Amino acid sequence: LLKMYTRVISYLFLFSILRSDSLTVSGTVHNDSGKEVKKAHVTLRNLQDEILFEDKTNRKGKFLLEDIEPNFYYLVVEHEEQGFSRVKLNPRKTRNRDLILRLELSNVDSMVQCYLFANQNPTNFDPALAVDGLEATTKAEQVTLTWKDIRQANSYRLYENGVEISIQKTNRLEKDVTPGKNNCYTVQAIGDFGLTGQVSGEFCASAPTKAPRDITIEIWKNILSLKWSPVNGAKSYIIKRDGEKVSSEMGPAFVDADLEFDKDYYYTIVAVNDLDQESENSIEVKGKTREFVSPPILSSMKDDEKVVLIWNEVDAAETYKVNRDGEYVSSVKTTSFSDPMHPGKTYCYQVTSV
């Protein structure tokens, strides 16, 4: 008998523990004129909209649902003549309490409000749809947004600088952007029956430009002239020679002078946007200066009608360029040049091997 008594006590203790978190959901139902509605059908449903508990309001419009475990629910009230109402119930992490509600029926669609098991005023947003963990990563002309996925969310509404730009199913967005412009993003989760969470805090990000491309190098003696295609969003360019910065240019060109003869040089170029963000390095390109060619030793002979220039042959020279008084006159492949001269005239000549 003692064992049986002990067992009964144990069962009662266990039952009291199991029921300790059970709550009641009660309240009154009114129409839009404030009058109590009797015989309204009240149902408590899970998130799949399946009925778990139900009751009908009495003549004073009251209803009572007992032994409710704190969880996520929809409370739906229906009446053939007076209309319809749906609210969402959300549990708290701790200290859940019985709910006492005052619900109003309407024959027009209305916003689904949310209650906590705390007898506080309802909210027009769903706390279960709060977006968290919004982050942005960037690469050339692109921003990627990510955030924590929400089980109860069907989709997400995204804003850029306060303007809606997308509604999508996933918790990730890749977006092409103008480089060098700072944009701020927010996200709002959307659930069933028009429920929405609060708009998230904003996350601001900007993207760098693409790397310079189509680089060409023109060679003249010990001078290398670089050109490349303009980069969208670039305000300037950093030129690196053999890995070290040698210049910053506003336009897509650079002349590297006074280099060593007959030597290889390696260049990369970086684009810089209006926010001073640097792009990735361009593809490395190589330029090689010409071999050093000694200038020809020039002499001249003249008579009354012409002057004849002669000079020594220069190794590796293919042609010789003749200038008179600083202006180009001719190119020849031989080591002499005859130029008509008027009496009393004096000219200065320069010959360059090419």
From TrEMBL:
Gene3D superfamilies named in the record: Immunoglobulins
One Pfam family per UniProt: CarboxypepD_reg
Ranges annotated as spanning the membrane: none
Full protein name: Fibronectin type-III domain-containing protein
Organism, scientific name: marine metagenome
